Amino acid sequence: xxxxxxxxxxxxxxxFYQIAGGWITGFGIGAVLLLGIGLIWGLAFAPPDYQQGxxxxxxxxxxxxxxxxxxxxxxxxVAGFVGLVWRMKLADVAIGAALPLGMALTAVALFTGSLxxxxxxxxxxxxxxxxxxxxxxxxxxxxxxxxxxxxxQTDLRARAxxxxxxxxTINIPIIKYSVNWWQTLHQPASFTLTEKPAMPAEMWLxxxxxxxxxxxxxxxxxxxxxxxxxxxxxxxxxxxxGLFGGPDATEAKPATAQALTGRNR
Amino acid sequence: xxxESITELLRMDGHGGYVWASYIAMLTILIAxxxxxxxxxxxxxxxxxxxxxxxxxxxxxxxxxxxxx
Lengths: 265, 69
Fold this sequence. Notes:
Chain A is mainly α. Chain A is built from 11 helices and no strands.
């Protein structure tokens, strides 16, 4: 399938609903396996840090939570741009689906960072560049959530949240480079694409596995929520009615319908 | 396993409380998000199924009414 054709298909909620089933299963299996292995490995099998002792094990939940929370926001920013420029319905669906998990993971990153800070820095909270910019990310998430709850008109809600998502993406490079720009307490990035990690393999491998596992979980969670929202928004369209043996049933095919819903009916 | 006993794993040289609280927080968030996403889909599916049943029922009722007349 050409890129252009793929782009056009992405505008169809029906097409997305159909292809998402397989992706959700794949992401679900990946999440269970990778998170299971990575979290247990980090918690009980990785060696302790020579300076921080066992408190460094918090890294195996803190770093993946922060990375995925930022990626989800970036994804919302891209979806916001697509929604504003091309008026693609799915863009707003994606924003609404990524929002709860992104908000929860940002809160986890801050909470676990605070738990890590106490034995390491001797304080639950520091006015550190990365801590403050991540708190700002949480406020952005909460703000968009509140806005979406307050506005009932779908089009207005889509445009307003897309705009805030897009403007808020400026905070992502600030979070990323905060440890370089301001020489603060927070340690530098655990992973970069260009350099080998400073840790030994028995420490960074479980982290890599957990990060990949959490990305799989995010894929599973966001796509599942998107399917739920598509069913809600398209509940009166023929293809959704067809899934339940309605007038469009021949087009949707009963066997496919069962596979699409992912459940035996 | 790095630790020689379960007690050592739980205590982690005095850091156990911080580490375990972090893992529990993460697992709680993951389970809650999984359950909420699943509920969103199942609620929609149940409503659509219910609506379909109502439609079929009313269709059957009207057909029965026509036969009686």
